[in-house]
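Protein modeling request. Please complete all fields; requests missing the sequence field cannot be processed.
Requester role: graduate student
Desired output: 3D structure, token encoding
Chains: 1
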Amino acid sequence: MRTKNLILIMLFLVWTKSSAQLYPDAHDIIESTIKSNKSGQLHGNGRVEWFGGDVYEGTIKDGKFTGYGKMIWQTGESYKGEWKNDFMHGYGKLVWNNGTSYEGFWKYDKMHGEGTLKFSDGSIEKGIWNEGVLMDKL
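Delivered output (138 residues):
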């Protein structure tokens, strides 16, 4: 139990430390089916691919992931679900490159609300999360 709590904390710290780097820069786009708005920002539904291999399919509003979409990072992580202003926000599933996944509610890139964390060893933590911290087990 204590080991899993440490793993949860480590996953949270690694994710929050690196999440700013996981969202690709608009200048590195190599292909996009999404048109730009009058301000030159991507706006609409479609697919965007960046140098390095990151791919996003979904809705972008005024240059930000907003609405429903799927992001696959070159690092092997993927997220499919709701976005708000470039943040995982609402219901979605994040899969880390080691096979661990979290499916449930998100608030500004942090597990928040009811969700299920499945570890790569097959063990499961179901519970209520508050800004990335497991508060109550279900």
